[in-house]
Amino acid sequence: MKNRSQKKTVVAVLFVLFGIGLMIYNGIDSTGIYFLTVEELIAQATSLKGTSIRVSGNVVDGTIDYNARDLILKFAISDMENETKTINAHYNGIMPDAFKDGAEVILEGVYEKSDNLFKAEILLAKCPSKYEEEITEGEE
């Protein structure tokens, strides 16, 4: 009798572990977001239609248009390796302090290929290099 109850307990524990594993897998799968460069985004735009993605690039000089009253930020970003590849971006929210011409940014949102427009829900600007430690000549 004792042996039978141990088997039931083991089977129950296995079912619970399987259920927890399945929930973790589904949670990760449904919240996973692609991370692309501007060039990759342009190349894969058709297959990513309506998909929430992250894209990284550099703010194109002279393209920043910020309406502080309505919190609407319009700008363009270019690929870090191939500056000829650019997309336009719109973001509704407060402009980060580190956001400026040439800044490295990460956007999260949806890309509309027909308008070459990235509608960003999240905007992260990389801190400028002045915060990084300087290496003087002779140090390494």
SSE layout and pairings?
Elements: H1 2-31, E1 34-37, H2 38-44, E2 53-59, E3 65-67, E4 72-78, E5 86-92, E6 104-112, E7 117-125
Architecture overview:
Helix content is 26%, strand content 33%. Strands 2-4-5-7-6 form a five-stranded mixed barrel. The termini are far apart. The chain has two helices and seven strands; from the N terminus they run H-E-H-E-E-E-E-E-E. By secondary structure, the protein is of the alpha+beta class. It is elongated.
Describe the structure concisely for a colleague:
Helices cover 26% and strands 33% of the residues. By secondary structure, it is an alpha+beta fold.
- In the CATH hierarchy, what is the superfamily of the largest domain? Nucleic acid-binding proteins
Distance, first to last CA: 70 Å
- Strand portion, in percent? 25-35%
> Which bin fits the share of residues in helices?
25-40%
CATH architecture of the largest domain: Beta Barrel
Radius of gyration: 23 Å
For this entry, give a set of tags.
140 residues; alpha+beta; OB fold (Dihydrolipoamide Acetyltransferase, E2P); five-stranded mixed barrel; 7 strands; 26% helix; elongated
